[in-house]
What does this fold into?
Amino acid sequence: MPLRIVQSKQNARLKQLRKALANPSRESRSGAPHLAGIEGPNLLEEALRAGLAVDCVFVAQGAERLLDSFALPPQAEIVLLPSELLDSALTTESPQPIAALVEPPEWTWDNLLGGLQNSTPLVLVLAGIQDPGNLGTILRSAEAFGAAGILTLPGTVSIWNPKAVRASAGSVFRLPVLAASAINAIARLREAGLRIFATTVGAAEPADLIDLTAPVAILIGNEGNGVPRPISAMADGAITIPCPGPVESLNAAIAASILLYEASRQRRVPR
It folds into this structure.
C-alpha cells in the first residue's frame, strides 16, 4: 500500500478529507468519484465489511498499529501525519487517530424496491429531516427492522454528514438510500404498488390498526413541522402513534423507530 508522510495542513489529501467531513454531498462537480469521510476504527471496519472501496486512510503518528487490524486493499493510500494535524480535519470533540475516504455505495430503484426479490417492501420517506443524529438513528432502525430502504426528499440532511454516519453505526453503508423529489418519489412508489401513509399527530388511523404487512411507504416529516401539507396530500392515508401521556408529539427518530417496529411485528405475526 502506498504510504505518504504529511506535515502540512495544505496537503491536498487532508483538504479532501476536511471538505468531505465539513460539506458532505452526494455529487462531485468535477466529475471525479464522490468520496465520503468517515472517522474512527469502528466505522472503517464497518465500511470494509460492507464492501466499500477505501480510497485513502489517514492515521496519526504513533497509532500505526491500528492499520494491522484492517484488511485494506493494496491500492488504498495511507497518509501518516501528526495527531494535531489529523484532529484539525475531524469533526468529533474527542477525535480518534484514524479516518478514511471511502466510495459510497451506488443504489438504484431496484435496490430500494427489491424487484421480484422483495414483494412486500417497507420504505421510509424522509421529508426534511434536518438533525443528522435523527437521520442516523432512523437509518439504524430501518436496517434493524427490515426496511427495504429510505427515500430522502429535498431539505433532508445528507446521510454522509459525520454525525449521521456515526449515529447509523454502519447502516449507512448497507441500507439502500435514494434522494428524489416528492413528486418523483410518490410516483415511483405508486408504480411499484406501495400504499403511502403520512405520519401525523391526530386525525389519523392508529398504526396497529393499519395493515403494514403489505407493500407500504411511510412519510416521516421535519422535526418541527411534520410532513408538509403538499406532500401529505399526495399520500393514500394518515398514520399516527397513539400516546396516552400528555406529550404533544414524538421525536422524528423515535416515531420512525416505533412505526418500523410495528411493521416488523405485524410481518412476524399473521394477521
Summary: The chain has two domains: 3-103, 109-268. The chain has a mean pLDDT of 91. The two ends are 55 Å apart (CA to CA).
